[in-house]
């Protein structure tokens, strides 16, 4: 995949989203619509390969937006970048089913390492940043993995589009 045609994603898990797991919340529906618009804009800028870290929450929304884009636009590929085999092991059955269904629909699957350790999410995020020219983020200013990933992406000179949860 060409770096200059690759867009990755970072965003919050449900615990940090104002609506938690309630995807029928109007703010969630608005965010999903904005994500779909930004994915379309990225395509218009020449992005064809999209990478997703496959976490619950905003990652799932991004993954679904890219899969919808792929239905309507030629040349779109989606890569599931999985930090470790156990990523979904402790999730609810519903979240695991959604995860495996989404991963199965991706064009590529990259597992950063086999077993979980405290650095595997960080390595997954760096893998995506290091192979992207653009990043779309769902971010509200809180400390955590999304902030770290955005900071790293800025240092690496990626074009960054941030969707602020305060606007949702």
Number of helices: 5
Helical fraction equals 40-55%
Q: Outline, from the CA principal axes?
A: globular
Helix and strand content put the structural class at alpha/beta
What is the rounded distance between the termini?
32 Å
Largest sheet: 6 strands, parallel
Structural write-up:
With 168 residues, the chain is of the alpha/beta class. The protein has helices spanning 26-44, 58-72, 93-105, 120-130, 145-155, and strands spanning 6-11, 49-52, 77-82, 108-111, 134-139, 159-164. A 6-stranded parallel sheet has the order 4-3-2-1-5-6, with helices on both faces. α3 (93-105) links the parallel β3 (77-82) and β4 (108-111). The longest helix is centred in the N-terminal third of the chain and has 19 residues, at 26-44.
Summary, kept brief:
This protein is of the alpha/beta class.
List the defining traits of the structure above.
168 residues, alpha/beta, 6-stranded parallel β-sheet, 5 helices, 6 strands, globular
């Amino acid at each position: 995949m060409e770096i200059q045609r690759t867009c990755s994603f970072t965003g919050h898990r449900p615990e940090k989203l104002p609506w938690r797991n309630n995807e029928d919340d109007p703010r969630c529906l608005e965010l999903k619509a904005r994500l779909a618009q930004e994915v379309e804009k990225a395509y218009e800028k020449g992005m064809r390969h999209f990478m997703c870290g496959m976490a619950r929450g905003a990652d799932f929304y991004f993954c679904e937006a890219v899969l919808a884009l792929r239905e309507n636009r030629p040349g779109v590929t989606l890569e599931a970048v999985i930090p470790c085999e156990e990523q979904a092991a402790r999730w609810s059955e519903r979240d695991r089913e959604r995860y495996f269904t989404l991963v199965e629909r991706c064009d590529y699957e990259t597992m950063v390492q086999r077993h979980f350790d405290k650095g595997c999410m960080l390595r997954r995020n760096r893998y995506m940043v290091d192979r992207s020219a653009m990043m779309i983020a769902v971010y509200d200013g809180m400390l955590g993995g999304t902030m770290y990933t955005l900071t790293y992406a800025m240092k690496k000179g990626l074009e960054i589009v941030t969707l602020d949860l305060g606007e949702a």
